Inverse folding.
């Protein structure tokens, strides 16, 4: 602990690394996929035709993200270039998951996929195998926890020391 009463960087890192190793299972994550999509709402042929037209543009070199920003009707991801971030298998509807499994290389785009939401074009960005989250990814979170734990332990020790010589006087309390 430094002069201001804050735990120093070495103490925080020691606590964080110890917790990271001791509780390794809590940092495990399932395999994950990072994907983008363009959603055209509606189940009819017109919606499918629009999705096929966009797929043609992508095959001719158009930028998937730019097309998603312009055409995707997904209010959540459309403005972000269709980016869905990383997610585990089973988080998306079955038709979406099945189509995504067929994509093998980053950048690859699916044929139009029909779901309850409409027609999707799905682009594989990256796959991550199951494993442990890297220490660097959880470091700040563990440091915050360490700071709280170290300060709490210090306060408990100080209050225990103050109370150590205290006497309980029933008459004074009454």
């Amino acid at each position: 602990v430094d002069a201001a009463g804050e735990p120093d960087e070495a103490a925080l890192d020691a606590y964080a690394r110890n917790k990271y190793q001791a509780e390794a299972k809590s940092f495990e994550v399932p395999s994950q996929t990072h994907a983008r999509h363009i959603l055209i709402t509606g189940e009819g042929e017109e919606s499918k035709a629009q999705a096929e037209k966009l797929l043609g543009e992508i095959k001719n070199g158009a930028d998937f993200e730019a097309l998603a920003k312009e055409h995707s009707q997904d209010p959540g991801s459309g403005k972000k270039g269709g980016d869905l971030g990383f997610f585990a298998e089973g988080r998306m509807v079955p038709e979406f998951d099945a189509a995504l499994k067929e994509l093998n290389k980053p950048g690859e785009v699916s044929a139009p996929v029909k779901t309850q939401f409409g027609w999707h074009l799905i682009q594989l960005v990256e796959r991550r195998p199951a494993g442990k989250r890297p220490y660097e990814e959880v470091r700040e979170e563990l440091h915050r926890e360490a700071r709280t734990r170290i300060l709490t332990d210090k306060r408990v020790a100080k209050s225990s020391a103050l109370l150590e010589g205290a006497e309980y006087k029933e008459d004074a309390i009454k």
Notes: Residues 135-164 form the longest helix (30 residues).
